Description:
By secondary structure, the protein is α/β, with parallel strands linked by helices. The protein folds into two domains: 262 residues, Rossmann fold; 160 residues, 2-Layer Sandwich (Alpha-Beta Plaits). Helices cover 37% and strands 25% of the residues. It has 14 helices and 16 strands. The strands form two sheets. It has an eight-stranded mixed sheet, sandwiched between helices. Strands 9, 10, 11, 12, 13, 14, 15 and 16 form an eight-stranded mixed sheet that branches. Strand 1 and strand 2 form a beta hairpin. Helix 11 runs antiparallel to helix 12. The protein is elongated. The two termini are 29 Å apart.
Amino acid sequence: MTDLGMPETRYAHSGDINIAYQTMGHGPLDIVIVPGAFSHVEFNHELPGFTAFLHRLSRFSRAVTFDKRGQGLSDRVSGVPSLEERMDDVRAVMDAIGSQRAILLGFSEGSPMSILFAATYPERVSHLILFGGYARAGYSVSDEAFEAHITVTVAAWGTGQLMKTVIGTRDENEREIALLGKYERLSCSPGAFKTLILMNRRIDVRSILPSVRVPALVLHSRADVRVPVAEGRKLAAAIPGAKYIEYGDLPHACFAGPCERLIGDIEEFVTGHRDGAFPETDRVLATVLFTDIVDSTRMAVEAGDQRWHELLDRHDRLAKQTVEKYRGTFVKSTGDGILATFDGPGRAVRCALAFGAAAQQIGLPLRAGLHTGEIEVRGQDVGGIAVHAAARVMAQSGAHEVLVSRVVTDLVAGAGLKFTERGAFELKGIPGQWELFAAAQ
Length: 441
């Protein structure tokens, strides 16, 4: 991981294939997260809740994510990888990080491979955890219905419509849907996705479920619209001694929902206890946004108390609406500005730009500063170096300007945002030189 808390992408060698992976945390346990039908280890962090989910896991483990061959940042391959080749990829990642034995956390389509790996190599798997999983793709759907569904899905590939059902969003905001569409396109091509899903239709690991001898935890949600909850129940019933926990409010991608209970269940299963109370001070990775009304004192004097208070009220309402639109957390008003946090840096930058443009329409010149790093969550407030850094970045910006730190530009590369170099600055109370950039759409 970098000093700013964002994991670096590295590559493991699985034969002649390069497998992209990231690690987060330094706990005594290794949790290898086996993804579903598509993934992208870097763009994953733009999805709501994903980074926070990994940070919570990293409290008691070293959390490992990777892209299977043919997906995301891993090498593209001809044809569709077999389950055996996918097992090789997991083993290669474990070898690359020096993990002799790990917990496998299989999501969705990653579940059958995780089951096969655990049954084949029990000496390398300490625990098997499955979420939103199944033993046989397609369930009881007829071939005709299955193929019709795939045809519709592939036709809409890259538009974000599939990812909407995966993360459980009903948001019709065009920018949000565009982000999900980009995630689909970066994960794999529509042709590769179709080939993969059609091949998965033939996968059936039901016969090996009784051979799983490692401790197993099966998790599923009744709110999962991609894989029916009945499939999770079948898995738990067929794996000897498996523990089953069912939720009522999590989407297929559990990290996008209220998953603190789920993480606690995982922690208790693998360690024998749970952090439980979630301490008052919680550390998570976030993008911090500070804004400020430029020359507010002079404007207040010229406007008069009543008019100025009316403008501030409009400013605060506009701020909360804009932050909510971009799925951020409005932390507080600072009098003539705001503090907000986001779990996706791209949304944070777009929010700052949109808020600045909207405030300009009501005659308020704003300046904004953003930085991504670890923050301390203290009840309804936040603290930490990243918060101070964002405030210092804002202090360098001018009217109608959104300045961001270097780490923000690195994390949103390819997201369609434009940045202009503003030079290196010394930020009060924070060591080192900071490269700052002005953002634009």
